[in-house]
Amino acid sequence: MTKLDRTDARMLLAMCDAPRATGVQLAAALGLARNTVAARLARWDEDKVLAPVDRCVSPRDLGYPLKAFISAVVDQHRLDQVLVELETIAQVTQITGLSGAADLLIGVVATDADDLYRVAGLILGVPGVERTTMSVAMHEVVAYRTRPLLEALAKP
C-alpha cells in the first residue's frame, strides 16, 4: 500500500480542481519540477492509487436512478462462491464485508421499483445467501469523498 505525503496530497487536490490538467500544468501550478510530477503520477498508476474512471460515472446518467443497500447474511463456507456470483449481477455497484448482524453490504442500482425487486431477488437467489434486508437510498447527504483528508495532509 502506498503512503501518500504532503506533495501527493497537493497534487491530488490540484487534480480535483482541474482533472484534465497535464503534468506540465500541475508542475507549474504547484511549483514542482515536471519530473517530480511525472514520477508521482507513474507511481500512482503502478500502485493503483487512483480509482478507475468508472467510479466517476453516475449510475443515474446510465439510466439507474434508484439506489439501495442490501445487507446479506451468508453461509461462511460458501462466501467465495457468493462473491463470484454477486459480481455477475451488473446492478451490483459495490460489496463490502461487514462484522455484526450481516456479512455483506451490497450496493445496488435499479431503473425503478420493479427492477429493484428483480435485482433483490437475484441476490437472494444466489446459493449461499441465507437472508437479506434492503434499505432504499432516499437522498445522498454526503457523497464518497476524500478531499477533507487530502486537505489535512496537504497542510504544512
UniProtKB/TrEMBL annotation:
Top-rank taxon: Bacteria
InterPro entries: AsnC-type_HTH_dom, Dimeric_a/b-barrel, Tscrpt_reg_AsnC-like, Tscrpt_reg_AsnC/Lrp_C, WH-like_DNA-bd_sf, WH_DNA-bd_sf
All residue ranges annotated as the Transcription regulator AsnC/Lrp ligand binding domain in the record: 74-139
Pfam families per UniProt: AsnC_trans_reg (PF01037), HTH_AsnC-type (PF13404)
GO biological process: response to amino acid
Keyword tags: DNA-binding, Transcription, Transcription regulation
An example Gene Ontology CC term for this record: cytosol
Organism name: Mycolicibacterium hodleri
Keyword Acyltransferase carried by entry: no
Name by which UniProt lists this protein: Lrp/AsnC family transcriptional regulator
